[in-house]
Amino acid sequence: MSFRWSPTNVLDLKSSEGTFVRAYTESFELAFEGQSMEWGYPGFAAASPPGTDERIRLVASNSQTSRIVNTLFLFPLRREDAADRSRLTICRSELLSIEQRSDGGGVEWRNVRFPWGPPVTIEFVRTGQRLPPADRRGTQTTPLTSMFGSWKVSYFDRLGVGPENRADVVACNALPPNPDLPRAGVETGPEPWPVLPPSPGWPANGL
After folding, report:
1. By the 8 A CB rule, do 156 and 123 touch?
2. Which residues pair with 125 in a beta bridge?
3. Which end of the chain, N or C, is more open, meaning fewer C-beta atoms within 10 Å of its C-beta?
4. SS3 for the chain, per residue?
5. Max Cα-Cα span within the chain
6. What is the pLDDT along the chain (207 residues), one digit of tens a residue?
7. CB–CB of 101/92 below 8 Å?
8. Is the pTM of this model over 0.90?
9. Is residue 174 exposed (0-12), middle (13-18) or buried (19+ Cβ within 10 Å)?
């Protein structure tokens, strides 16, 4: 799984805040796919609110039954700030390839593109004395050390599709088309769609 973040004026991806939001959102996606907190980045569990281990298992992931290959695109849409906490809404788009096995043992890939759609919501508190590191970028898909500092997430919703998210869903759908998505909505073939490189990614030394 690879993550590509769009630069917007809502979130400075080079800042400590950008590092924290990126690391937590990516960790939750990975933990959901693996259905385990251990799939998140170092420090993910400590930065999470109570009950996160149950939340990542509320719905079974595609990885539980099939091999998947995907690139996830994230577009910070808007934010609300109050004192020591912030709440961000992030639009989500995806290239997803799911392995399909026939009864005869053959393999075919179902490749699906998802335009901007249900948003991610993250609310976090700037607590303690340790800032998340700033200016973390590079060619690696994951960091090897904690990117969270002493900050904590107080609320996270991976796919907001309830009545309270209706305006955000409309706003995400109204974004210009994601230029990295192919025209085909769904297609099948002998190979998965290639994973795109991460952006901004993590440093080559993994730190």
Report:
1. yes
2. 85, 152
3. C
4. CEEEECCECCECCCCHHHHHHHHHHHHHHHHHHHCCHHHCCCCHHHHCCCCHHHHCCCCCCHHHCCCEEEEEEEEEEEEEEECCEEEEEEEEEEEEEEEEECCCCCEEEEEEEECCCCCEEEEEECCCCCCCCCCCCCCECCCCCCCCCCCEEEEEECCCCCHHHHHHHHHHHCCCCCCCCCCCCEEEECCCCCCCCCECCECCCCC
5. 60
6. 999 999 999 999 999 999 999 999 999 999 999 999 999 999 999 999 999 999 999 888 888 888 999 999 999 999 999 989 999 999 999 999 999 877 767 789 999 999 998 899 999 999 999 999 999 999 999 999 999 999 999 999 998 887 888 899 999 999 999 999 987 789 999 999 999 999 999 998 767
7. no
8. yes
9. exposed
Structure tokens at 190: 């002998």
